[in-house]
Amino acid sequence: MIQLYLRPCAYVDTPIGYDQPVERLAGGMLYFSAWEVLTTEGGRRTGKQLIPVSAFDTYHDSMSQDQRERLDGLRANILKPRPPLNMGERNIPLDQPRVMGILNCTPDSFSDGGKHGDAPAAIEMGGAMTAAGAAIIDIGGESTRPGAPLVWEGDEIARIEPVVRAMANSGAAVSVDSRKAAVMEAALAAGARLINDISALRYDDRAIAVALSSDCPIAIMHAPSASSDPHKNDAGYRDILIDIYDWFEDHIEALVAKGIARERLIVDPGIGFGKSLSDNLTLINNLALFHGLGCPILFGASRKRMIGALSNEAAADARLGGSLFLAMKAVEQGAHIVRVHDVPETVQAIHVWRGLRDAALTASV
Question: Is the pLDDT of residue 1 over 60?
Answer without folding.
Answer: yes
